[in-house]
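Listing 4. Sequential folding, example run.
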Amino acid sequence: MAEQQSITDLGFDPDALRAKYREERDKRIRADGNEQYFEVKGDFSHYVDDPYVESRIERQPLTDHVDVIVVGGGFGGLLTGARITEAGVGSIRIIEKGGDFGGTWYWNRYPGAACDVESYVYLPLCEELGFVPKEKYTHAPEILAHSRAIGEKFNLYEHACFQTEVEGMQWSEADQHWTVRTNRGDAMTANFVCMANGPLNRPKLPGIEGIDGYKGHTFHTSRWDYDYTGGGPAGGLSILAEKRVGVIGTGATVIQCVPHLARSAKELYVFQRTPSSVDVRANRPTDPEWAASLKPGWQQARMDNFNTLVSGGFADEDLVNDGWTEIIRNLASMVNFRGQALSPAEVAEKMELADFQKMEQIRSRAEQLVNDPDTAEALKPYYRQFCKRPCFNDEYLPAFNQPNVHLVDTQGRGIDKLTANGIVANGEEVELDCIIFATGFEVGTDYTRRSGYDLIGRDGLSLKAKWADGMRTLHGLQTRGFPNCFIVQSGQSGFTVSFPHAMNEQAKHIAYILGECAKAKAKVVEVTAEGEQAWVEEIIRMSRFSESYQSACTPGYYNNEGKPSLSSKQNGSYGAGPTKFFRLIRAWREEGSMQGLELR
């Protein structure tokens, strides 16, 4: 009776939900893990071609020398370039595959593309540029324009090499510099290199049988084909009016582009393996009076406030007050363990109940917004809130009420195969004129595969070989055997909801180390063996905090496609969270002894 009363009070049965979560997870576990995705090359290389440049930039190969080469022109590269420019480092060159700065936001121009974190927090260096975005969640065109503005502000265009891909880097112990070779015949050299390839840069394709035999039109959402669809980033895809369109994938990209496809396509089929959690977006224009009232330091304060709240910390005020921070308010309100003598198991149980409560709300929203009961049920996510990145959108779920929009739910199995004419799912063929792959970017694959090149460090050591059994770094940024090399990424570092925040902290750290090298007149900086080993052990130790949580999650890039291992734990982010990590590296700088590094 006591248990029944508890269920009545909660409004759900925790044991039933646990069983449902396990059932849904087990449906989706695949033995091939990350290998279910093709590496986009060879016959599939057209999926990564650049559709946004009118012509190739012609130039002679470069063999000159600069102080710092930064690989990647997204926010990671731009922030690194900006912070080391502020630190007074000499010449900087950014190498970027795309035709301009922007990174993910150069490639992602699909209709509806927007940041999912509040733009006043997400867009870096707003205060330095005197800029306030025009919407709470601004759209891709403004983000791309802001990227270009950062490049102009910090004079990063002067030595930039666009439409250029790095093919290899090699350290010369004799010359104490790096040689960087590219697909343009370059063999340029630099004292330091910074790899800011970004967490979302290499499109992935599902390894579906028959993918190379389909005769209709295809493209990846990160290379949207407006020549085929018509319209632009704001929608108006008029050429699709007589087209049957299929979309593979139901992550953040589909959540944003489906409403536009639904308004334009003759028939739209959304093929789903796992539904996303879709909460309220409530976007709105920026209040000009609020923007005019901002005081110096406003953006860093807002970033820190948001990061504290979404990382499970407490703040006196919620400056952002949106779906992200509401998740944490929900957890905090039920847990409310401050001042209580709760055991870790009791805290975990209360957190789980709060999570169930929030996800019940998400599932109820699908029922409220989708008219057909079967479709609404199929769109309900049955997993913990942070097993996958939460989505926020006010148009996605109602789109399934349109008669031309069809959800093809595969019950976790995925698509059977592609034929010459369309897609087979659940044993039935759907004939299509166009298939759009909204399958995202590689995350859990080898770093060198995602970057597209390997590094050769001292004594011929390759980064691929060194990291074959897991990453080995100090603070996620430097690895022994690869002097004067910095790697901007989330592995063994601070993972945040807002990626640019972490990149900004890493960029500041790199600028500090380069500044200390200049003061000491040191030509080389490298991680000590002891410093690297201690940090790897700390990462593995701290990973245990989330081990049971991730193991119970439905497969995705957060848990290595459902195959957590010692290697994936070692490659994970700092387990105590980004706030503590940022404090840790700040304290490291303030202590001043460069512990774990050697300068010579």
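-- end of first protein; second protein begins --
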Amino acid sequence: MPMLKEIATLFPYFRRYKFRYLAGFMFLAVASGGQMLIPQILRQAVDIMSAGNFESGVIAVLFRNLLAVAVCISAARFGWRYFIHGSSRRIETELRGRLFRHLLALHAGFFAGQKTGELMARSTNDMYAVRMASGMALVALADGVFMTLAILVILFRQAASLTWYIILPLPLITLLIIMLGTVVGKRFKKVQDVFASLSGQTQESISGIRVIKSFVKEKYFLKKFGAENEAYLRANIDLVRLWGLFHPGITFLSGLTGVLLLYFGGKAVLAGTLSPGLLLAVFSYLEMLIWPMIGAGFTVNMLQRGAAALGRINAVLNEKPAIVSRPAGRKGSPGEDLSVHDLCFRYEAGLPPVLEDVGFEIPAGKTLGILGRTGSGKTSLVSLLPRIYDPPRGTIFLGGTDILDYELSSLRKTFGIVPQETFLFSASISGNIAFGAEEELPEEKLAALAEISTISRDAKLFPQGLATQIGERGITLSGGQKQRVAISRALAGNPHILILDDALSSVDTQTEEKILAGVLEYRRGKTNIIISHRIRALSFCDNIIVLEKGRVSQRGSHAELLARPGLYKDIHTLQITGEQGP
């Protein structure tokens, strides 16, 4: 069964907390056993009073016994909740941590096909369903089975002839649970899927609020959100409509047992074959049987929900990281000299290549510039160097060793990358800069890094300087300010190789030249790669390559490329003409 297959993935956690679960079920048995003693005490009291042998001392003893049982039940209930619910909370925490660690290990291509809101839903809403399946569902199952069997044994021992009549509706309750229970999981999965879509829509709208407002698209996104919200409502109503049949149906069928008891039990009392106290006890036991029946519905519902949620979580956990360290990968700091030989790369089989026969060398301590039109493969090239995507073996070497042979974390620590689309965390400016360092940075170091990127100039205008909080994704900063913070962040890590991927596209040319001069002076003797559309920025480089349609069409120094016809010279002419004006 699909449900059992998914629930089986929790077995390793159950084994880990088996003693906690065992203690919890022992307390649960004590609580349920105590509940079943109460009708017997009431039976004795009623029989004593109905026989006219009323003695206050006897009643006092029964009252004391009833009070002691109630105290034991209360203590046992605390015990099973502490151990069983506590274990389910621990499982939820561990599973969420495992999911998050796995997400961090997955390759960039996985996230290209996923919505952030959907992944968040799997980390929150689905985890709640798993917690209920590993906690309350097991309580309902164990308690239901234990109480049903125990109560039936008591009833058959004390009123066998009457019990045969009053348990007639019970098979109908079981049939109702089986019929409706299998559909619950499918509808709950639909609810979770729609919730994930709703979360994704909400997250996307909030993240893109500036674009929405600038294009005056509030009504469009409100309508789109309303459609998702309505779909979520309909999915929930479909589930609630079905689940709503459980409780009334079980209650109705359980009520039939009460009707049968009043008829057959009343006749037995009048005939003198059944004592009034036993009739009360049987009625109490039948009331107790309602919980196992309802509990069976709860169990099916929660297990179906948990299985559906686990299926969505396991779909992520079963994704294999496409980029991993090779066995016995080389650790330690790679060298700074980089060479690329006959590099061909495509993102997926069947797609056209984005890079073909690319080759170049960067000696340690030198700076390479890369120029190319949009879509020429520049970003794809620098994404292969730290293995954001895997290159073919034997094409990229660092320190004379194939980058595929390095331990992944050691390789990636070698590079500091500043992309064109900068991501900043919801923290202070200084906190974002310090993120790039492996140890705490002193204030003077932070100030020096901010000075190199010139973000210090802007920070003087902020309320708290570098300590100013910049909001989610740095929403309070301009594009140029974000890029400069990102440059300081990359410098904070002091990488062996710094890559600026069009990282100054949002600043003016004068500021760009000042920043590049400061960066290269700060990194004197270290290797750098600068991607830019501006020839002035590339003039700082020792060597330059020009990419066209994924191939290297030109290579040489700034002066050499200007001396011969080609894309580099054409762009330089256009930019010089644009600066001079008509």
